[in-house]
């Protein structure tokens, strides 16, 4: 009989998941606001800045492939500990670089840890919170969103008061804090938590069968399309919202603030979507209003961008709720932590590999045509693929049944 206290003994693991999630985007949004300042100091131009902008999706794609074998060999807990150690080392090293190459190498080190964390957090939720997937997914995705927002708001003031090196290196602190719960788990806490959880009937033991191949599953491709198209649209907006708004006549400071609006509105969907998806008869019902928000948001950005810029960017931020949906479906469409890890790795490899093209294609279309109509047409095509991926992923089936 299940215990009436299914959370007993797992709160520290929950803290470890939330702290690790907070660190999954800090390397990106702590550098972006300072690119002009850092570029002037290290003497690099727009080409190097563009390469730095592509590193996150590239690293996330590479470590989507590399992380599942690492997790299989080390275990999920040691892998997330390694991920946070790499993130901490890379973040600290960025404060001491003396050239563009050093900045890229240290950023790549931090992003490697964050890419590993992308893959292992969903199966850790599956392992320790099999009975509360929706609630815990909401906690960790919201924490990730907060970790995306906070550096964007803090980076410039901190750089102005203490220098850009301190501003970049300061984000080693939350990465180090994220190490502590997992160090405790590996010191014996894991066995105690696992024993209690199995006794309560909430921790699955099964693993994938020998010879299982995720890439053969239609579900895996649909999930990769959902995550990949969502990430492509999101990173295109991260890159080009400020330029879009300055083209519309806003001052640079106001244009930059619209990126903050875009990011902040995603908090609402990060909180709500995982819980709703875990209870919905069909998660695709959650996607339909998001598709409508995309349509209204992009129409407004094309027809009246300077009239209500916060409204349009806010609607597009809410439409990005397909990202927390994709992460939540990793656990809703698998039975075991092993299946969750395999699906997560495949989705991040394929999805972020495709997402690399988003900022580049949007920028090229804007430069060639001199406007934003063709970029929006491209993004609309991507959203159509996203809709197919969401529909196919919402069908009631699980990855393990593909083998």
Automatic annotation (TrEMBL):
Residues 11-403 form the Major facilitator superfamily (MFS) profile domain. The chain crosses the membrane at residues 43-67, 79-97, 103-121, 133-156, 168-186, 219-241, 253-277, 284-304, 310-330, 342-362, 374-393. PANTHER family: 2-NITROIMIDAZOLE TRANSPORTER, PTHR23523. It comes from Lysobacter zhanggongensis. Keywords: Membrane, Transmembrane, Transmembrane helix. PROSITE patterns: MFS. This is MFS transporter. Signal peptide: none annotated.
């Amino acid at each position: 009989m299940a215990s009436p206290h299914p959370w007993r003994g797992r709160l520290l693991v929950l803290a470890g998941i939330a702290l690790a999630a907070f660190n999954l985007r800090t390397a990106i949004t702590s550098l972006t606001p300072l690119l002009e300042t850092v570029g002037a100091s290290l003497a690099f131009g727009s080409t190097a800045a563009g390469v730095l902008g592509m590193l996150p999706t590239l690293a996330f794609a590479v470590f989507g492939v590399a992380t599942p074998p690492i997790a299989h060999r080390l275990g999920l807990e040691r892998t997330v500990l390694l991920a946070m150690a790499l993130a901490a080392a890379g973040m600290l090293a960025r404060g001491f670089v003396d050239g563009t190459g050093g900045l890229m190498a240290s950023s790549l080190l931090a992003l490697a840890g964050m890419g590993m964390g992308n893959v292992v957090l969903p199966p850790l939720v599956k392992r320790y919170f099999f009975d509360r997937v929706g609630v815990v997914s909401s906690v960790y995705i919201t924490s990730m969103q907060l970790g995306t927002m906070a550096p964007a708001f803090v980076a410039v003031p901190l750089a102005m008061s203490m220098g850009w090196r301190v501003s970049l290196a300061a984000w080693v602190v939350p990465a180090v804090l994220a190490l502590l719960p997992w160090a405790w788990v590996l010191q014996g806490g894991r066995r105690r938590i696992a024993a209690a959880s199995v006794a309560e009937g909430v921790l699955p033991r099964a693993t994938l069968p020998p010879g299982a191949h995720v890439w053969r599953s239609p579900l895996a491709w649909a999930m990769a399309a959902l995550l990949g198209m969502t990430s492509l649209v999101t990173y295109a907006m991260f890159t080009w919202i400020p330029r879009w708004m300055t083209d519309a006549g806003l001052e640079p400071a106001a244009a930059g603030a619209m990126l903050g609006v875009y990011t902040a509105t995603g908090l609402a969907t990060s909180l709500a979507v995982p819980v709703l998806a875990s209870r919905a008869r069909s998660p695709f019902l959650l996607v339909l209003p998001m598709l409508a928000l995309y349509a209204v948001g992009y129409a407004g950005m094309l027809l009246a961008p300077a009239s209500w810029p916060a409204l349009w960017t806010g609607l597009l931020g809410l439409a990005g709720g397909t990202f927390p949906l994709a992460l939540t479906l990793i656990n809703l469409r698998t039975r075991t932590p092993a299946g969750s890890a395999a699906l997560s790795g495949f989705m991040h490899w394929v999805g972020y590999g495709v997402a690399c093209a988003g900022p580049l294609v949007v920028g090229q279309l804007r430069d060639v045509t001199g406007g934003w109509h063709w970029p929006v047409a491209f993004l609309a095509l991507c959203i159509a693929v996203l809709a197919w991926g969401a529909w196919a992923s919402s069908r009631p089936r699980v990855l393990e049944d593909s083998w």
